[in-house]
Write a structure and sequence with these properties.
Layout lengths: L1 H55 L3 E6 L2 E16 L3 E3 L5 E6 L6 E2 L4 E5 L2 H37 L4 H33 L2 E3 L4 E5 L7 E2 L6 E4 L4 E8 H4 L7 E6 L5 E9 L9 E8 L14 E18 L11 E6 L2 E6 L1 E3 L5 E6 L6 E3 L12 E4 L1
Helix pairs in contact: 2-3
């Protein structure tokens, strides 16, 4: 019984210990969860505090400090090389082209045969006039013999003076007819020569838009020939900027395929604006340096910077800093730590920086970003 009762007592003690241990674990777990929630709450409170502090901090803007400096106002355009002068060869007669001896890019000399137009009829006309002239030559020769015989007979008393006069008249008429026929022969030769196309001057063939077999009239261009090396640049400038151009203005040009800039100058300004494009034709001359021996082909692309204005001390601002460009332009400045609005006048020009003529002074800090807080806002400034 004792053992049994002792065993029972021992069993009861063991169950109580286990129950106490469970309660301790539960309490420890609860304390840990409370600590976690407290940590989360503290972290949230810290984040909210930082956000509040950040929202209270002034916004940061980027500003450029205005300073007087030398500037060049440049008009950037693209042009192409053209021949200063060219000769368009057109046929003197209509007909079918039977031969062409030169092609695009070939060099020619004055008098070179470039091609031929079918001349069968002109050659037949020449043959007819030559035959008629030959026949008349024989007629004249016979008339001259008849005249000589009549004179001889007259000296012998066997012919009358009237016979001599008639023979003389026949010779005169025969010679007149021969001269007319000889002129017709020369005219036929000249007409035949018109069927042969010749180069009017030394140069290079820029274009040959026709081929053998085509039938052409006198308005068709057969060859476009330009003197070798006689080149200039042609471009078209928008009318908004063309009035700033003058003859002799300096230009820097970059030719495709040449790894250095070439100097040039404005040599021609068209007196009219193309109403369909609003453009004005501008031409520029240039001289290649002696060490540049590359031939400049017609049609080559050229990037051109025409210097339209130079100033030793100008105030410039980025175009991106100007508000209401086409209305009442103004910029936003930082004075102290506040944004202020300042009306300005400027020279409008297609460039990243523009020249301000009124409204700014050296040392002003101009805000560049368009998405800027309104005037009166206190800001921090980051210099560009």
């Amino acid at each position: 019984m004792h053992i049994s009762a002792h065993g029972s007592v021992e069993s009861t003690a063991t169950s109580a210990d286990e129950e106490g241990l469970g309660l301790a674990l539960v309490r420890a777990r609860r304390r840990k969860q409370r600590a976690i929630w407290i940590g989360v709450a503290l972290a949230f409170a810290t984040a909210v505090g930082f956000a509040a502090l950040k929202s209270m901090a002034p916004p940061t803007v980027k500003a450029a400090t205005v300073a007087a400096k030398p500037i060049e106002r440049v008009l950037a355009v693209t042009g192409r090389v053209r021949a200063k002068e060219s000769v368009q060869v057109r046929p003197k007669v209509a007909g079918q082209i039977v031969e062409l001896f030169k092609n695009d890019g070939d060099t020619v000399e004055a008098g070179d045969v470039l091609g031929r137009i079918d001349d069968a009829r002109a050659r037949a006309a020449l043959d007819q006039t030559v035959a008629a002239a030959d026949a008349q030559t024989r007629v004249v020769a016979q008339a001259e013999r008849d005249l000589e015989r009549a004179r001889t007979l007259r000296e012998r008393g066997s012919a009358t003076q009237s016979a001599v006069e008639n023979a003389t008249l026949a010779v005169t008429r025969g010679r007149d007819d021969l001269r007319r026929l000889q002129a017709a022969v020369e005219d036929a030769r000249l007409r035949l020569a018109e069927y042969t196309i010749v180069a009017p001057a030394d140069g290079r063939v820029l274009d040959r838009p026709v081929d053998p077999g085509q039938v052409v009239d006198t308005s068709a261009m057969l060859f476009d020939i330009a003197p070798v090396g006689d080149r200039e640049i042609e471009t078209e400038v928008d009318e908004s900027y063309s009035m700033a151009l003058t003859l002799g203005q300096h230009a820097r040009m970059a030719f495709a395929g040449i790894d250095r800039a070439i100097d040039g100058q404005v040599s021609y300004l068209s007196p009219q604006i193309d109403p369909s494009t609003g453009g004005r034709v501008v031409r520029l001359s240039f001289d290649l340096p002696e060490d540049v021996t590359t031939e400049i082909p017609v049609g080559l692309s050229v990037d051109i910077n025409i210097v339209v204005d130079r100033r030793d001390g100008a105030l410039t601002v980025p175009r991106a800093s100007i508000h209401d460009v086409s209305g009442a332009p103004y910029v936003l400045l930082v004075e102290g730590n506040q944004i202020v609005k300042r009306p300005i006048s400027f020279t409008d020009w297609p460039a990243a920086d523009v020249v301000v003529t009124e409204g700014l002074r050296t040392g002003d800090r101009v805000i560049v970003d368009q998405s800027t807080p309104p005037p009166g806002t206190t800001v921090d400034v980051t210099a560009l």
